[in-house]
């Protein structure tokens, strides 16, 4: 069942030392099924490493750890197990559910219970996070259930090497672990190790190809379906369902039909038959991901139809098999005239999708980027999330650091994601996390490649881990999640001074997203990056382009007027109180001011500084913070693995070089535009 573990890949948050608490004890596993077999394999591997034992029959010497499916407990088994089961039932919290589990400690026995095998698997990884503390003081049964039913990663991996985007679009960690130069990579050990890492942080779904579906990728749906099935075989033992990105034009591209019109009977029949064939080959297939009528991808607009027509076509084909279609809401005019100040890219998703609320079938998940633009360093929450109560929505994050340093810069994103998930509106307590939990869950673009450290920058692993953990429990504090990742990845058993290591990593990472924001684009303005590459500063790079991403800086001020009174009206897409808060520069949060308003350089922020002085100060401050992080990391020589230290050092050197370039170009640009000096007399070039 298990492919041999790769020896040339960093273990990330599952090093052998993390399994010591379990692997050094006598363990009993009760229950059957593929995922229970995975649990047994994990425990056997840990016991072989650390001297413990595992068995699957209740009879035998007293165990110190019991992992059991509730239906397998019966009236037999250790008294502690029966007592724990009674506690769970007495608590009256209802069933543990398909992925939930309960953990109890009775005397000298730790008991993990689950209703279904997936719960036992997730409970095992919870025990690994707890380490020795799982075997401490006795406590009654505590239940754990995921907030989100679906916790998904989208891989923007291409089967063929794309002439512009390469093997992985927006990939910053090498090539794909799935595909290589048009063929399957077939590195079973690497994919199985990846599945294990994902399950350990709570992810349960993966789309294995790019949402921009090119000619070769389109054929994964039909004659190359076996390639997808091979990947599904590797993910299945860790409870992860495979999804596939498909082109809306598939009936034309693959079957030669004259149309892909979603209301055409022949098209509907083709999708139904093709989908049935997919499930015949991959019975636990998750469903389709679709990018349609977006950035040149085909869609229902070509036939005079709307997004509900298109999504429902695929939903009808998937429904008999229990599948879902993730229909991305990233739709906007990417060929606009920069002279036209009435067209606002930020408005587009709401304008396209909000009027369709209530028309999507139940197995359609409209996948909405968390901000209205495109994963910029700072954006408001997308108003689409607040506007479609009759539609299942998934909220989309970007773990790959396209606009946040491309895994060459330290940028721990959990604090930002946590802000988004906790964002609320109205008097009913509605939050982004609540909408996602009730609808389609959380989705993120993966940051993994074939780099030995998985993510290129070893510290970028924390973003992938944090996404999974926040999808499981959005209430977790980002610093708490980072603590988990540090304790697992840099296990205390492997370093001479774990307290110093932990403290230093928090100093480097806790505020790193805001540090990145300080030396890049200020006050929510966004898109001051080099076009195409999206790395490094280019203040006017998109200012006169077709993509609709402008800052409108002139001699008098900067920012985009998105108000109802004088601008594009975007603020009116928000419910109260936010429509009022964002409408006025007097109430708009400083960090979003230039996203919503064009203001003079002398405008005074809530902080007491003028806009222009804020630009100067934050860019100098950001560079100073990177310099300090680099010095802190230097102090860890000998406390972390030498290869990890060398890679992070290399990346911090590049981050410092780039941060200085950002500082000097942004400050020089605004100094020349405004003619205003720095109050502190620093060089502005």
Structure description:
There is one protein chain. With 685 residues, this protein is of the alpha/beta class. The chain has an eight-stranded parallel beta barrel, surrounded by four helices. The protein has a six-stranded mixed sheet with strand order 2-1-3-5-4-6, sandwiched between helices. The chain has a two-stranded antiparallel sheet with strand order 8-9. Strand 16 (364-369), helix 13 (384-387) and strand 17 (393-398) form a beta-alpha-beta unit. Helix 2 (34-50) packs parallel to helix 5 (117-130), helix 10 (265-281) crosses helix 11 (307-318) and helix 22 (611-634) packs antiparallel against helix 23 (642-674). It is globular, with a radius of gyration of 26 Å.
């Amino acid at each position: 069942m298990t492919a041999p573990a790769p020896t040339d890949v960093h273990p990330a948050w599952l090093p052998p030392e993390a399994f010591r608490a379990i692997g050094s004890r006598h363990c009993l596993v009760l229950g059957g099924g593929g995922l229970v077999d995975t649990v047994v394999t994990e425990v056997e591997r840990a016991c072989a490493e650390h001297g413990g034992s595992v068995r699957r029959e209740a009879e035998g010497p007293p165990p110190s750890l019991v992992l059991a499916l509730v239906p397998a407990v019966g009236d037999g088994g250790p008294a502690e197990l029966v007592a724990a089961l009674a506690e769970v039932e007495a608590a009256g919290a209802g069933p543990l559910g398909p992925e939930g589990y309960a953990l109890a400690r009775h005397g000298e026995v730790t008991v993990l219970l689950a209703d279904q095998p997936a719960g036992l698997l997730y409970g095992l990884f919870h025990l690994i996070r707890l380490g020795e503390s799982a075997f401490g003081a006795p406590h009654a049964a505590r239940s754990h259930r995921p907030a989100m039913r679906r916790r998904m990663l989208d891989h923007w991996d291409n089967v063929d090497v794309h002439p512009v985007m390469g093997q992985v679009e927006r990939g910053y960690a090498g090539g794909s672990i799935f595909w290589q130069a048009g063929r399957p990579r077939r590195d079973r050990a690497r994919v199985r190790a990846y599945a294990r890492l994902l399950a350990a942080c709570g992810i349960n779904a993966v789309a294995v190809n790019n949402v921009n579906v090119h000619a070769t990728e389109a054929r994964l749906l039909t004659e190359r379906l076996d390639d997808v099935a091979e990947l599904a075989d590797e993910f299945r033992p860790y409870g992860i369902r495979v999804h596939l990105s498909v082109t809306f034009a598939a009936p034309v591209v693959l079957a030669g039909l004259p149309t892909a019109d979603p209301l055409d009977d022949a098209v509907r029949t083709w999708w139904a038959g093709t989908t049935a064939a997919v499930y015949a080959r991959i019975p636990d297939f998750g469903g389709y991901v679709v990018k349609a009528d977006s950035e040149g991808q085909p869609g229902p607009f070509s036939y005079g139809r709307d997004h509900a027509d298109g999504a429902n076509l695929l939903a009808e084909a998937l429904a008999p098999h229990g599948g879902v279609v993730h229909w991305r809401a990233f739709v906007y005019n990417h060929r606009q005239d920069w002279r036209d100040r009435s067209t606002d890219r930020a408005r587009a998703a709401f304008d396209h999708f909000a009027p369709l609320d209530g028309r999507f079938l139940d197995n359609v998940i409209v996948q909405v980027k968390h901000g209205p633009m495109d994963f910029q360093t700072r954006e408001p929450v997308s108003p689409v999330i607040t506007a479609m109560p009759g539609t299942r929505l998934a909220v989309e994050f970007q773990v790959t650091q396209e606009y946040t340093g491309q895994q060459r810069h330290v940028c721990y994103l959990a604090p930002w994601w946590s802000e988004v998930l906790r964002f609320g509106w109205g008097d009913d307590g509605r939050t982004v996390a609540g909408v996602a939990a009730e609808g389609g869950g959380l989705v993120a673009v993966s940051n993994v490649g074939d780099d030995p450290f998985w993510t290129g920058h070893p510290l970028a692993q924390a973003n992938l881990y944090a996404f999974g953990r926040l999808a499981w429990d959005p209430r977790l504090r980002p610093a708490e999640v980072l603590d988990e990742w540090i304790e697992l990845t840099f296990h205390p058993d492997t370093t001479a001074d774990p307290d110093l290591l932990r403290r230093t990593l928090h100093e480097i990472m806790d505020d790193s997203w805001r540090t990145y924001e300080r030396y890049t684009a200020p006050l929510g303005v966004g898109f001051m990056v080099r076009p195409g590459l999206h790395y490094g500063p280019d203040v006017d790079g998109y200012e006169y382009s077709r993509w609709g991403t402008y800052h409108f800086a002139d001699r008098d001020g900067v920012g985009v007027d998105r108000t109802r009174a004088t601008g594009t009206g975007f603020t009116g897409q928000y419910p109260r109180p936010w429509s009022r808060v964002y409408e006025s520069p007097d109430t708009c949060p400083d960090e979003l001011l230039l996203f919503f308003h064009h203001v003079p350089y002398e405008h005074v922020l809530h902080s007491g500084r003028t806009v222009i002085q804020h630009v100067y100060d934050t860019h100098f401050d950001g560079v100073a913070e990177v310099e300090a992080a680099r010095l802190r990391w230097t102090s860890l020589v000998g406390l972390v693995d030498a290869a990890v230290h060398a890679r992070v050092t290399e990346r911090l050197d590049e981050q410092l070089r780039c941060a200085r370039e950002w500082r000097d170009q942004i400050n020089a640009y605004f100094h020349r535009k405004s003619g205003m000096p720095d109050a502190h007399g620093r060089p502005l070039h």
